[in-house]
Design goal:
The complex is a heterodimer. By secondary structure, chain A is α/β, with parallel strands linked by helices. Chain A folds into 2 domains: 6-293, no CATH class; 295-350, no CATH class. Chain A has helices at 6-12, 44-56, 297-304, 310-326, 332-347; strands at 18-23, 26-30, 34-38, 71-75, 85-91, 95-104, 109-118, 125-135, 140-147, 153-163, 168-175, 181-189, 195-204, 209-218, 224-233, 238-247, 254-264, 270-279, 284-293. In chain A, the strands form 2 sheets. A 10-stranded mixed beta sheet of chain A has the order 2-1-5-7-9-11-13-15-17-19, covered by helices on one side. A 9-stranded mixed beta sheet of chain A has the order 3-4-6-8-10-12-14-16-18, covered by helices on one side. In chain A, a hairpin with a 2-residue loop joins strand 1 and strand 2 (26-30). Chain B is an alpha/beta fold. Chain B is built from 10 helices and 12 strands. Chain B has helices at 44-52, 76-82, 99-111, 119-132, 150-164, 180-196, 235-244, 247-253, 258-264, 274-282, and strands at 5-15, 18-29, 33-37, 57-66, 69-70, 84-87, 94-98, 143-144, 168-172, 202-206, 220-225, 228-233. In chain B, strand 4 (57-66) and strand 5 form a beta hairpin. In chain B, helix 5 (150-164) packs parallel to helix 6 (180-196). The chains are: A alpha/beta, B alpha/beta. Chain A binds chain B through residues 296-299, 301-310, 312-313, 316-317, 319-324, and chain B through 52-55, 75-77, 79-81, 85-86, 88, 91-92, 94-97, 101-102, 105-106, 109-110, 143-144, 160, 164.
Chain lengths: 350, 284
């Protein structure tokens, strides 16, 4: 077995086995079952297929064009990987624009964990990332990405998913950066029986503005799309969730569910949610729940009566609010890391 | 080992501008168990809430001190750290927060920074307490009170008391919603805890029923009617109340019952000149 370079191993933990590093000096692999090409290098058949898929996805945030240097990361057909696959982006430049195409070929299964490492946290930065994930027939893919950049970094994340017949795509997304953040996450269920579950959690602080759009288009019968968004807004931060569930005519027996909730901790923090269901078919099930609320007075009193300060009580309730989403993350080490990030964030004093 | 002392003098308090407590005087020392009984709506739970600092109540006058601590001047969490504990009648349910995490945070808040409890001593103590209270073994991993039955919630309050080791514990109707087995478990544990801690913890039991007192023998029984302690006695007073109700006592003391008072309370309704008056004014 190839060992990871020491630094990476420390970062990822002693159990990490597979890693792909995308940085200044190109690509590094460590014992990964993935193959990486630029779009220009892939076969003509593949190119034609990818081009066709990419035309489906829309990009209101970024105006990228698929180019020859678009990275194509592939998980070969029928490859089942138990251990998480780490994909690590190392950012050196002030402006980062990258277009990545991730393909899980038929019958493959894997958990991807995306990491971002910034070389210089004090330098102003713009990170624009466009990711397209294609999950082909019967494949199962979990894609987890949590960012926690400092205030100097401005983020624009655009993620697209295409899910084919009887395939499953699970998004676990967390937005814990301190700078202004705008994300969109659009998934199209194009094959019968395709499933997408998207969870997104976020904490807003300071003067930060965050807006997140999550959309699942159900274009085939027997598809299921479930969106869960939980956000906590502190201080003077502003947050917005747009949740859109779309069911195309003819997508019978489709199921679309969404839940968007914000907890607002301080008087000057603001939050809005826009749950939208667009349904053009009769034979479906659909539901949505949305709320923007404060921590209940009685709850705070209860916790304080056990010796927790107002701040500690708020932190505990915040953690509890995000916990159901943290629990959907299947990798234990990632879950712990996430808990640590959230704990640090909620225990910061105003 | 010191014996704590809770001293309440002439305590008056209101909720939404309605005076509920009309001058409470009470002294409770470590090692003592005081039962406070009385009909509903006479201020028993208000007394508990005021001592703990529930923001719902406004203190009008009087003092409450626990040893040197001026309770009424402290925020809720500082009262807890000073040694007060209130087992609540309706404990909050908090999703996503496990009992273990919550208890550890609470215990550490009491111990202060740099003096946090080790994981093993904590788990050991928690497991022992869970066992004593005959609670489900997975309790530490369950979310705080979420999906708990009424009896489980009450036992969980006692569990918190065992973990936090307060100087003065108020148990607000800990017996309501308990079946007879749970009543026995709660009762014997509270009694045992007071005994084990010798003179370091005092208890105020707020209850309607004598049946809890079969398991927790009080040293003093106080009757709270219309915001005042109108009679104090020993356990025999509780028995008499159970058998004969409160009417004999009210008669003896020449009190009208509060419910009666509420009924006869004068309701002055402003005369409604609304529509007529307006019409006249407008010459319609």
């Amino acid at each position: 077995m190839n060992m990871l370079p020491e630094q990476l191993q420390t970062y990822l933990g002693p159990d990490a086995q597979h890693a792909l590093v995308i940085g200044e000096e190109g690509l590094q692999f460590n014992n990964t079952p993935l193959t990486v090409n630029t779009l220009g290098d892939t076969t003509h058949t593949n190119q034609a297929y990818f081009q066709q898929v990419m035309q489906r996805t829309v990009q209101p945030l970024t105006t990228y064009r698929p180019a020859d240097d678009t990275l194509v990361i592939e998980l070969a057909a029928e490859v089942v990987v138990e251990q998480p696959l780490h994909v690590i982006y190392v950012h050196h430049e002030a402006v980062f624009r990258r277009h990545v195409l991730f393909v899980a070929q038929p019958f493959s299964e894997a958990k991807i964990i995306e990491h971002h490492i910034i070389a210089d946290a004090h330098q102003p930065m713009l990170i624009e990332q466009t990711l397209e994930v294609i999950v082909r027939d019967e494949a199962k893919l979990e894609y987890a990405s949590f960012d926690a950049f400092a205030e100097m970094a401005q983020l624009q994340m655009s993620r697209f998913g295409i899910v084919e017949r009887s395939a499953t795509l699970t998004w676990s997304l967390g937005s814990f950066s301190s700078g202004d953040t705008q994300t969109e996450n659009i998934t199209q269920l194009v094959g019968a029986g395709a499933t997408c579950q998207s969870t997104l959690m976020t904490i807003g602080m300071g003067e930060q503005k965050q807006t997140h759009l999550v959309r699942i288009d159900q274009l085939a019968p027997y598809t299921s799309g479930v969106i869960t968004n939980h956000g906590v807004m502190r201080e003077r931060s502003q947050g917005n969730f747009d949740g859109i569930g779309f069911i195309e005519k003819g997508a019978h027996q489709a199921n679309a569910q969404q839940e968007s909730r914000f907890m607002v901790l301080d008087d000057q923090a603001k939050a809005t949610t826009n749950p939208i269901l667009l349904i053009d078919e009769y034979d479906v099930t659909a539901g949505h729940a949305a709320s923007v609320g404060r921590v209940d007075e009685e709850t705070l009193y209860y916790l304080q009566s056990r010796g927790l300060s107002n701040h500690e009580a708020n932190a505990l309730v915040t953690l509890g609010f995000l916990m159901p989403l943290i629990e959907t993350v299947s990798d234990e080490r990632l879950r712990e890391k996430l808990l640590h990030v959230i704990e640090t964030k909620v225990s910061q004093h105003v | 080992m010191s014996q704590p002392k809770l001293e309440i003098t002439n305590l008056q308090a209101a909720v939404e501008d309605k005076t509920i407590l009309k001058g409470i005087n009470l002294t409770v020392r470590g090692g003592e168990i005081h039962a406070i009984m009385g009909p509903n709506g006479n201020g028993k739970s208000t007394l508990a809430g005021v001592l703990m600092g529930n923001p719902k109540y406004q203190v009008c006058s009087g003092t409450a001190t626990l040893d040197e601590a001026d309770l009424l001047a402290l925020p809720v969490d500082e009262r807890s750290k000073a040694g007060m504990f209130l087992a609540m009648q309706y404990p909050s349910e908090i999703g996503g927060v496990t009992n273990a995490d919550f208890l550890r945070s609470a215990v550490n808040a009491h111990r202060g920074e740099g003096n946090e409890i080790g994981l093993f001593p904590f788990v050991k103590k928690l497991n022992q307490s869970v066992k004593k209270l005959e609670m489900r073994e997975d309790l530490p991993h369950r979310y705080l009170n979420e999906g708990f039955s009424g009896g489980e919630k009450k036992r969980n309050e006692i569990l918190q008391m065992m973990m936090l080791e307060p100087k003065m514990a108020i148990l607000d109707e800990i017996d309501s919603g308990l079946d007879i087995d749970a009543l026995r478990i709660v009762g014997t544990n509270v009694t045992q805890l007071v005994k084990d801690r010798e003179q370091e913890m005092g208890v105020i039991l707020i209850t309607h029923y004598q049946r809890l007192l079969d398991y927790i023998q009080p040293d003093f029984v106080h009757v709270l009617i219309d915001g005042q302690i109108v009679k104090t006695g020993g356990p025999e007073l509780a028995k008499r109340l159970e058998e004969d109700g409160y009417d004999w006592l009210k008669e003896e003391l020449g009190l009208k019952s509060l419910t009666l008072e509420a009924d006869t309370e004068e309701t002055t309704r402003p005369a409604n000149i609304g529509a007529c008056g307006t019409r006249q004014k407008l010459g319609l």
